[in-house]
Amino acid sequence: MAEFSIIDTYFNRQNINSVDLGVGDDSALLTPPPQQQLVICADTLVAGRHFPLDTNPHAIGWKSVAVNLSDIAAMGAKPHSILLALSLPQIDHDWLKGFSQGLYDCCDQFGVSLIGGDTTQSPHLTISVTALGWVKSGQAVPRSGAQIGDYICVSGQVGDAAFGLNHLGHRLQRRLDYPTPRCLLGQQLKGLANSMIDVSDGLAQDLGHILAASHVGAEIELDQLPIDPDVKQLQQEMQWQYALAGGDDYELCFTISPQNYKKLLQLKLDVNISKIGQITPNLGIRYNNHGVDQVIKFKGYQHFA
Length: 305
Ligand code: ADP
Ligand code: MG
What we know:
- The chain contains 9 helices and 11 strands.
- The radius of gyration is 20 Å and the shape is globular.
- The chain has 2 domains: 3-136, CATH 3.30.1330.10; 151-290, PurM-like C-terminal domain (Phosphoribosyl-aminoimidazole Synthetase, Chain A, domain 2).
- Helix 2 (57-73) packs parallel to helix 3 (93-109) and helix 2 (57-73) packs parallel to helix 6 (183-189).
- It has 305 residues and is an alpha+beta fold.
- The chain has a 7-stranded mixed beta sheet with strand order 6-8-5-9-7-10-11, sandwiched between helices. A 4-stranded mixed beta sheet has the order 1-4-2-3.
- It has helices at 2-10, 57-73, 93-109, 160-166, 173-177, 183-189, 203-214, 236-245, 258-266; strands spanning 36-46, 78-88, 113-121, 126-136, 151-155, 193-199, 217-221, 251-256, 273-280, 284-289, 292-294.
- Adenosine-5'-diphosphate binds next to strand 2 and strand 3.
- GO terms for molecular function: ATP binding; magnesium ion binding; thiamine-phosphate kinase activity.
- Mg(2+) 5 binds at residue 201.
């Protein structure tokens, strides 16, 4: 009984887009738009592992949706809906109220409906969200499409969230707690970018996935990395560490031909784009700072965990 009253009280709001059947039946029903492919992904957050137990529940709700919409965006797709699988150690109404509000706030901002899920009791608080989106058939932007000569670009700023984690209470903690999935940019890059990924584990590692999938390498200009002015107060090695190895930014990293880059700059974008390097035939990533070769020894993602 408790399970149904939780669903009805917290997770059964009206859908905000086309859903044939949402929360309340054995499955949800959607009608695929003509000539579109279904884009689908899932991400799980475990309390004590992906966030501290005392994290603001509103932020947890927001982030559990945002990280999935970021994966949909990284394909060049339009997000449509989510499913929520929730495992709760106990029924805490204050927590559920904050969590569901944060979840719906993120859904509302990006025009996404919660269309179903599962609610269970378990010793560990675990939140698993599945996101669904649509993309015109054959137009999804894969990791594997980078071409030699492509510009490498990244949206927003990198390193903010890792800096926020190490400086709790600082303005940049908001970038850790409330990441902004780049949904509009992702869709604008469909048909323009050759490859794309969202930056969740640090720019160097995530760009590395594009390079491996595309069998190419990269030259990165360290002086072009979009780094927050407060992070820029740190010594240079530390700045690069945050920008390249810090996690949880949820920006988009993409590669694009010089011609399409010009077209991109003519669009009305809702986030800044930085051109940080170029795709090369020699594998791996080379770094330079103001044109001078630079070797970077990463302390690794763990440093910030
Ligand atoms: P079943 O037993 O048939 O799997 P459930 O009793 O688990 O169905 O769920 C009832 C309805 O509530 C279903 O439509 C399911 O998708 C939805 N639901 C369950 N938990 C959640 C949740 N946490 N968020 C949103 N919808 C949920
Ligand atoms: Mg059933």
